Every structure is written in C-alpha cells, then in structure tokens.
Amino acid sequence: MTNSPCEDKQAAGHLVWHKVKFHGPVAGRKCDLPENQSGTVDHEFINGSIYQQTFATSVSTQPTALRVAGPASPPPVVVTKAFKGWLRSQPTTGIAAQALEHVPATGVVLPLTATAEFTTTVTPPWNTPSSPSTPPTVSITLTA
Amino acid sequence: MAEVRDDGMGQFTVKQPGGPSFLHVGIADGDATVSCSTQMPLRSCLGAVSAVASWDRALSKNMGAGEVHAIAQGHDISNPEPQRYTISLARGWPGTEEFADKITKSAPEDVAVIRVDIGNSSWQWDDLSFSQGPGVMSFGGLADQSLVTDLIEVMFQVGDEWVHKHLKEFYPRIEALARGIETNDQ
Predict the structure, then answer these.
(1) How large is the ipTM?
(2) Model confidence, pTM
(3) Residues of A whose CB is below 8 A from B143
(4) Residue A1: is its pLDDT beyond 50?
(5) How many whole angstroms separate alpha carbon A70 and alpha carbon A96?
C-alpha cells in the first residue's frame, strides 16, 4: 500500500504500530492547510502483542508557520493485549488526536510543504519504554 | 536489589534497578501473561517451550494443535508491516526440535519480534537491543491463568541470571497472586 503524502506509519517493536493521518479543512485536498486554519492529526495505535501497551506521543513541527494547537502531547493511550480469537490473535487499537494550525504572516513563501514529526514511546507493563528509531511524520502543504 | 511493583489487581513486576532485567506476571480476564528478560535467541526460547510441554501435561494439552499461527516484524523499519504465516506441525511435536526449527526458519532473517499462537497459548520473543542495548531480549507466554506456574517454568528455563535469582525469591508471592485472583474470580 502506498501512503498519501500526508500520512505515515511506523512500527516500534513489541508488535506495535503507530499510524498518523492528517485531515485538513480543504474538501478533497486533505493535505492542504490555508492560513488561520487548523487540521487534525489522527493517531492510531495498534497493539498486536501479548502485553498491554501504553502509547505516548509528542509532535514537533517545522517551519514555525505550522504549529500544534494545544498541548504537544495528547494524553497517553493504553491499548489492551491483542484479542485471542478463533485460532489466532487480532490486534487491538487505541486512538488519539491533536490539532495543527497554520500561523499566518510568518515570512514564508506559500505554498510550502511543512512537516510534523511524532516521537512515540511505547511502554509495556514492566515499564521499560522503547521508541521507533524513525518516527512517523506527516507532510502538509501550507497555502494562502 | 529489585524494584517490586504490585498494583493489587493482578499485575506484578520485579525490575532490576538501572538494568535491563525484569520479570512480569499479569493475571486478568482469566488469562495469565508471564514475561522475563532473556539472553537466549528465538530458537532456544521456543526450544524451552517445547521441552517443558514434553513433560508438562497441562501445558501440552493447552498447546495441543497441529498448526502454529505466527506474526513477526523485522528490524527493517522501511517495511514495518508485520508478516503473518501459518506452520503445520507433525503429531507429537513436544519434545522434538520441529517446533523451534520450523518457526525460526519461517521468521524474517532480521526478526525483531515474533508472536506465536498455538492452541490456547501465545508466545512472544522480542529483540530489545535497539532500545535497551545489545543482547537484551525478552520472552513471554500467555495462556489460561490456571497455567501460570507452567508459564513460569518456561521463564525459568529461558530467563537470564537475574531472573533465575528473583523467580526463586518471588515464586511464593507469584503463586499466591495466582491463587488470590482465582479465589476472587469465584
């Protein structure tokens, strides 16, 4: 599967995935973010392991014309161990969301591709956190 | 020295302060999950499961299936989607090398984590070296909570030196935890 330019996914060991998807305010062009507007990043945390896992994430953006609206880290999400069904297990999921906004008059020439990079920490029950070596990112086109 | 954490609701962890070693027992929803740090590669951990199942009737019965369903991820982060596959086993596999051999050979060459579902049990091996340092791995099992002592037997086989020492020390408390949860459930 090929990702669209504004979504990404990343594994972090322990059979977990973190997928991010950006929903912008421009209908039909979900990666575009006009000035003074904000869009939403949806985080899907997927746990395929035999352990309950806690997912925490924080965002950094560049350039400064793109910034997070509200706290950089949404509340950590606890995802139960994978469900054991008929013959094999199925992953369980948790969701978090945060908003990114396009700050006007920051001296950048529009349109411009901005990025948001997410640092994810996954913590098993014995409290030894780990992070993926390559964090997931989203690319967003800042427009006038 | 050990850091002990007991949440009073079936989650019990003993951790090496400042080090990578740990052992964990979690009892919830009728299942027991037991995990520990290990220095053993995947094949040796699966070999320990097979060896214990060869003489432990309860575990053998719980794992009684001719098919293994596995899901694995490699270290190659450009390909984070896990691979799923199914492996057939001959009858009477406990005690043979078939279980460990077939699963290990089917796993990605750069396997970082693998979960194996067989019968009513699941087993998971993690290579934690990328986050916890070279040679740090973990192995764990999930089965009906009545099998908690059988799962601990496997952990005793695969655990590192720190785990051996502390499993002996905390075994009575873990047994009491399992009994307590059983009693509470009735």
Answers:
(1) 0.90
(2) 0.90
(3) none
(4) no
(5) 13
